[in-house]
Automatic annotation (TrEMBL):
Segments forming domain FMN hydroxy acid dehydrogenase: 2-363
Phylogenetic classification of the source organism: Eukaryota, Viridiplantae, Streptophyta, Embryophyta, Tracheophyta
One MF term in the entry's GO annotations: (S)-2-hydroxy-acid oxidase activity
Major site of localization recorded for this protein: other
Localization: Peroxisome
CDD domains for this protein: alpha_hydroxyacid_oxid_FMN
Reactions accelerated catalytically: glycolate + O2 = glyoxylate + H2O2
EC identifiers of the protein: 1.1.3.15
Oxidoreductase in keyword set: yes
Listed name of the protein: (S)-2-hydroxy-acid oxidase
Designated gene of the protein: GLO1_3
Amino acid sequence: MPRIMEITNVTEFEEIAKEKLPKMIYDYYASGAEDQWSLKENRNAFSRILFRPRILVDVSEIDLTTTVLGFKISMPIMVAPTAMQKMAHPEGEYATARASAAAGTIMTLSSWATSSVEEVASTGPGIRFFQLYVYKDRNIVIQLVRRAERAGFKAIALTVDTPRLGRREADIKNRFTLPSHLTLKNFESLNLGNLDKTNDSGLAAYVAGQVDRSLNWKDVKWLQTITSLPILVKGVLTAEDTRIAIQSGAAGIIVSNHGARQLDYVPATIMALEEVVKAAQGRIPVFLDGGVRRGTDVFKALALGASGVFIGRPVVFSLAADGEAGVRKALQILRDEFELTMALSGCRSLKEITRDHVMTEWDHPRVAPRL
Ligand code: FNR
């Protein structure tokens, strides 16, 4: 097992986390749905995309900065919402918020965080988005969105791939539940902060009880009547839904398969990205999450048209390994790797990263004559 000091890539945090965490918690963070085909494919698909680097470009100065929904950030690598971070480390979302702010990037806070929107805001300045699960009781949603607005959150990431929870078999076997000293802090005052112990995944039972399965495109419009915050639709995988998202007023799209935890046998997000980018026609920004573990992955996503990426498991595993310092290190490693990838591909700024800097299996006919 690598020691923290010896870590040279973000994947290595997982081994340390596995060693440190109780099995029920590690399994909750690590698992995907059912056969976990999409979980493996999220990684494998990146490895099938290759570079077409340009040489002899002066790369003595490289600019990684970008703007997301009008907010300037230090790099196109952001933090995805992952639930219940205090199971990983006592400082949980506080540590993630501080590390993200220190890295100059955006943190997305999960609805199911073990720290409230107000608590996360109290950690100090930082650009933060709030991930929303829509509950059957819409008064809860209205209150929660108000609280996020008041706490200074800048956008809503509306998760649309979870009308029911995917079958994560490890959680079922472990009878997953939240450790008794923790609550879903945003819902504590509503008496919805606890997961019951069941013969199933405690989270699956909670979702079945609280989350609105009837959620549909009309609700995306409804959400705009209760908030002026921009809405990112998180969980789009097709051109068809991209077009409806734009018609429904989305400010951006996150191509996501929920870290392969929902529907198994959906394609890797990097495989779905270009279809979505083409359908979006530059009208709204498209982001990606799922399997991003290397700076080269970030570059590939940008070359295929993403405006930025989000990372999920690397944050929870680095948090488990070393708290705030761990998350800072994970973000720094990805930043350094991405900067190096840009230098070695001949790109000095994000706008210089083009489709021609990568080759995929589906554009083989286009690239082959040049090989
Ligand atoms: C998630 N994800 C997630 N998404 C969401 O919208 N709300 C949530 O509360 C959670 N919680 C959550 C917990 C854990 C442990 C994981 C691993 C994932 C999905 C997350 O936002 C993101 O889509 C994926 O994590 C991205 O894939 P990688 O980076 O984990 O491969």
